[in-house]
Amino acid sequence: MPISISTGRKMQMFLLDLLYPNRCPCCNCSISWREYLCEACRQEVTAEPADAFCPLCGKLLRDCFCGTGLSYDRAAILTEYTGAARAGVLSMKSAASLHFGRFCGNVLGQRIAEDVVLSGYDLVVP
Ligand SMILES: [Zn+2]
Ligand SMILES: [Zn+2]
């Protein structure tokens, strides 16, 4: 599933790359100015398909805890907090890069738009 990046964001990324060459927020390798993540990290973060996660609690199906009672209706999950995903989240916490958040927001937004149940909700919160 290709990531869509607006023209304005592309111009910003191109100009920023001239001063600060673009790096993957997960593994810190050099990447093209037009990418949010390197190919290896992108594949690792999106390795689990959407149906690998419980649509209610958001955990992997083997770890589902819906029986304990949830304080929310549904969850849309991209990945577990391990490996490249953990490194990407930490890069946002340290303000090193927002690329991981932009990548995840883009992919999750596409998944939510394609989900007939989630796309019917009035409010989706991160
Ligand atoms: Zn990487
Ligand atoms: Zn569950």
Word description of this protein:
- The chain is mostly helical.
- It has one domain.
- It is built from four helices and no strands.
- The chain has helices at residues 7-19, 39-45, 83-93, 99-114.
- The radius of gyration is 16 Å and the shape is globular.
- The two termini are 21 Å apart.
- 18% of the residues are buried.
- The mean pLDDT is 90.
- Residues 54, 56-57, 59, 64, 66 line the site of one zinc ion.
The hetero compounds bound to this protein are: zinc ion
How many domains is the backbone divided into? 1
Number of helices: 4
- Compute the number of strand runs: 0
Low-confidence stretches: none
Mean pLDDT across residues: 90
Cα distance spanning the termini: 21 Å
What are the secondary-structure elements, in order, as H or E?
Answer: HHHH
Task: Tell me briefly what this model is.
Helix content is 37%, strand content 0%. The protein has 126 residues and is mostly helical. The chain starts with 6 loop residues before the first helix and ends in a 12-residue tail after the last helix.
Keywords:
126 residues; mainly alpha; 37% helix; binds zinc ion
Question: What is the strand and helix layout of this fold?
Answer:
Layout: H1 7-19, H2 39-45, H3 83-93, H4 99-114
One zinc ion binds at residues 24, 26-27, 29, 37-38, 40-41.
